[in-house]
Each structure stands twice: as C-alpha cells, then as structure tokens.
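SEQUENCE-TO-STRUCTURE ENTRY
===========================
What this section holds: a protein sequence and its matching fold, both as plain text.
Tokens: labelled as protein backbone structure tokens, with as many entries as the chain has residues.
Question of interest: how does this chain fold, as expressed in backbone structure tokens?
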Amino acid sequence: MFKISLSQNADKVLNIIYKEYQNRNYNNPFRYKAFFINSIFHNSDEPDLMPSLIELSKHRMIRLFSNNRIMLNDCAISYLEKKQKVTL
C-alpha cells in the first residue's frame, strides 16, 4: 500500500465529507454515497474548496460529478478508518 500525502485543506475537507457519510450511513445504511456539495458545505468558511476537491479526486478519494455531487470512495473510507486507529 502506498502513502497518501494530502494537503491540510484537503484533509479537512475529506474529514467533513466522511462525517457526513457516517451520519447518513448511521441513519440509513441503504442510502446512496453520492450527495450534494452544497448540502455539506453550505456553512463552511473553506476558501479552497474546489482545489481541495480536485486534489481528493486526483488521489481517487472521491468522485466529482458535473451535477454538483461527490461520492466518497472506499479507499477514502479505509484511509480515514486506519488514520483513526493510529491516533487512538
């Protein structure tokens, strides 16, 4: 397995997306993984949102869709779960 190096902003954005994924998965495990960007980041002060999303897409952590949706990929979920285990 290779080491993934994300910028601080991209890591922050990925964590926000993952928290939303966890909330949706907890409430309804059969819900789709794709969700609207505006619904997650409507109150965010994140100035570098699009560059961070593009960076995450290049690392294949998320998929970007032209209709303003994103989908969290399985490798991002495993990356964050392993990261949580290391910090515990």
Q: What stands out?
A: The two ends are 21 Å apart (CA to CA). Strands lie at 34-36, 62-65, 69-72. Residues 8-87 form a domain with the Arc Repressor Mutant, subunit A fold (CATH 1.10.10).
